[in-house]
Amino acid sequence: MVNKKVVGVLFGGQSSEHDISKISASTVISAIDKEKYFVVPIYIAPDGRWLLYDGLPDNITSGQWEKYAANAIISPDPQHGGLLRIVGDKIKKIQLDVVFPVLHGLGGEDGTVQGLLELAGIPYVGCGVLTSAVSMNKAFTKIVAEKTGLKQAKYTVVYRNEINEKNIKKVCAKIEKAVGFPCFVKPANAGSSVGITKAHDAEELKEGIKLASEHDRTIIIEENINGRELECAVLGNDDVKASVVGEILPAADFYDFDAKYMSQESQTVVPADIDEKISDEIRKKAIKIFKALDGCGLARVDFFLENETNRVIFNEINTMPGFTAISMYPMLWEYLGKEKDELIDELIELALKRNDR
Asked: Do 298 and 329 form a contact (C-beta atoms < 8 A)?
């Protein structure tokens, strides 16, 4: 272990994407180069407890190990320099050279964990506090995209405290005028398509708003774009690279949670069968929004290609995309010859370089 970097892999979390994070972490821990890195898996349980995991990566998702695990916490005090393992009244410090926060959604991808790691003085993979927070919030991402000049779907924003039985009809009428039907209703701060619905009329819109408000206080309503769903991966700090473009062929009406993770009929196509000029445009725009948000490390940027016009329309950016077996981010780089172990190694090196900078 003397010559190895110690990598803390954070996973789990208290978001609705907890289980996806466990699968992503299993993939990352399995693929990481054990000759170069010593891995310390750190689990955040749904109730907020931090635990050390010391089993096989394939067993992470079972949950059977949790009752035997030691408690642990990353201290924000930089003099501790890493992880504190707690057993009874005994505390052992475990030095961490870098942390890979394989956390999706609130409490992990939104700048909160990044802030903790900044205070602790520990380098970490991925975007910083501001980029993570703004990118997690779809409403604020849209403001940056507007300033950047990217084409987007028409949208409007409503808040949970505006919604009650007395004024819901008025809110829906306002949305219909601004966006029209069909439209998508989304929690502003959620991923993996959790809490998203497609509304074809006022009644479905009303139900969609209620569902989205269970996940977030800020709700985005977007115009439906009749087009293809395309994704591009970006990688780098100052010198940012874009991957080939991939296409999502959802089994459902749209790429919801079940279509992503439950249905075997959804397909990913790498590379997408699109004109080279459109592919280049998407790659340039993916880098553009990543830089506009002051991104570093990695992100997956999602677009629509409108059927009738061939317009490239920006959808959203994910600063800690999935690393599951069916996740697009690693798949896009694998097509270019960058296997998962090489990709993870590069992400760790980018984290260390960013910290030096």
From this structure: yes
Residue 256's contacts (CB-CB under 8 Å, 6 or more residues apart) are: 193, 196, 250
Residues 6+ apart with CB under 8 A from 64: none
DSSP 286-348: HHHHHHHTT--EEEEEEEEEETTT--EEEEEEESS---STT-HHHHHHHHTT--HHHHHHHHH
Closest of 74, 196, 72, 190 to residue 138, by C-alpha: 190
Tokens of 2: 């003397």
Instruction: With CA atoms as reference, report the closest residue to 245 among 196, 312, 295.
Output: 312
What the chain holds in terms of domains, given with CATH numbers, is 5-124 (3.40.50.20), 134-150+226-356 (3.30.470.20), 155-223 (3.30.1490.20)
DSSP 250: -
Coil vs helix vs strand at 316 = strand
- In order of 190, 269, 281, 282, 304, the CA distances from 310 in angstroms are 28, 18, 11, 12, 9
Print pLDDT tens along the chain (357 aa): 468 999 999 999 999 899 999 999 999 999 999 999 999 999 999 999 999 999 899 999 887 898 889 999 999 988 887 899 998 889 999 999 999 999 999 899 999 999 999 999 999 999 999 999 999 999 999 999 999 999 999 999 999 998 888 889 999 999 999 999 999 999 998 765 678 999 999 999 999 999 999 988 999 999 999 999 999 999 999 999 999 999 999 865 654 545 454 446 678 999 999 999 999 999 999 999 999 999 999 999 999 999 999 999 999 999 999 999 889 999 999 999 999 999 999 999 999 999 876
């990913």: which residue's tokens?
A: 268
Taking a C-beta distance cutoff of 8 angstroms, is the pair 185, 197 a contact? yes
